[in-house]
């Protein structure tokens, strides 16, 4: 599994974030998956392509959505990942990794701060799914109270096809269609 952790780079030296950062890796390993670290910001694009060619799937970790999108687009990896996934390489994204799979990331502006990536020219996502994913939507995480999600729907619900996901839910897209699981 090619493991892209760039969404965590803005807080990887924060000791309070360490458990959050490592939980995804440990979960994948506990399911018997071998992880190949793939830091997009520091890996040449040709090496990214080689690693993806050898991988059985891509896992894009959670963290800062706007910084993640900026890294992927500024390095050319966004186009490469999109091409590989459309050619059949499985894609798993959690939190920010799920958000960027959609057509647009603007609607998570109340969860993550777009100012972290001032060079990002627009809010286009990878376009791997039609829905704009809004993660953590149960309102049970103190930094993301339920009022944030109500305001997100109010501000963006008419412009985007929002898919609010609670922790523990996923959007599975396969040959049979799109399924909430």
Automatic annotation (TrEMBL):
Family statement: Belongs to the peptidase S51 family.
GO molecular function annotation: serine-type peptidase activity
Protein name: Peptidase E
Alphabetical keyword list: Hydrolase, Protease, Serine protease
SUPFAM superfamilies: Class I glutamine amidotransferase-like
The keyword Protease is annotated on this UniProt entry: yes
Pfam family, one: Peptidase_S51
Top-level taxon in the UniProt lineage: Bacteria
Annotated InterPro entries: Class_I_gatase-like (IPR029062), Peptidase_S51 (IPR005320)
Any single GO BP term: proteolysis
């Amino acid at each position: 599994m090619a493991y892209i952790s760039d969404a965590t780079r803005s807080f990887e030296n924060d000791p309070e974030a360490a458990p959050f950062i490592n939980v995804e890796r440990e979960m994948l390993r506990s399911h018997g998956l071998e992880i190949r670290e793939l830091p997009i910001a520091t890996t040449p694009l040709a090496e990214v392509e080689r690693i993806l060619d050898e991988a059985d799937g891509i896992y894009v970790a959670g963290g800062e959505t706007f910084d993640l999108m900026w890294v992927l687009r500024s390095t050319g990896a966004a186009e490469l990942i999109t091409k590989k996934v459309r050619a059949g390489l499985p894609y798993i994204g959690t939190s920010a990794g799920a958000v960027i799979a959609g057509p647009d990331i603007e609607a998570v502006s109340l969860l993550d701060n777009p100012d972290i990536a001032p060079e990002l020219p627009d809010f286009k996502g990878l376009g791997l799914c039609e829905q704009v994913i809004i993660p953590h939507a149960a309102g049970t995480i103190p930094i993301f109270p339920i009022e944030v999600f109500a305001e997100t729907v109010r501000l963006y619900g008419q412009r985007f096809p929002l898919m609010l996901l609670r922790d523990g839910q996923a959007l599975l897209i396969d040959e049979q269609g799109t399924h909430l699981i």
